[in-house]
Specification:
This protein is mainly α and 78 residues long. The protein contains four helices and no strands. Helix 2 packs across helix 3. The longest helix has 16 residues, at 17-32.
Length: 78
């Protein structure tokens, strides 16, 4: 089971609670529309929890992070 504490999730959303909530809600909507879950053996049937598990495991990333990775040619500066 993935640790879904806010301390572990915030780095995945560039330390923005707003971005984290936006990412989770958008992904939960995709899951409700029938998209496949990217986590093997999710710990819950709740779509929001599944979305947060995907974010925590790095299966879903913010658009900002993806754009930065593309711009830097696959490397991300910290």
């Amino acid at each position: 089971m993935t640790d879904l504490s806010i301390e572990n999730l915030l780095p995945r959303a560039n330390y923005s609670v707003y971005k984290l909530v936006s990412m989770a809600s958008a992904r939960a909507l995709e899951l409700s529309d029938g998209k496949r879950c990217l986590v093997e053996n999710p710990s819950s049937d709740k779509l929001t929890t599944r979305a947060l598990e995907e974010i925590a495991q790095g299966k879903i990333e913010s658009k900002e992070t993806a754009d930065l990775r593309k711009t830097n040619g696959g490397t991300q500066e910290n």
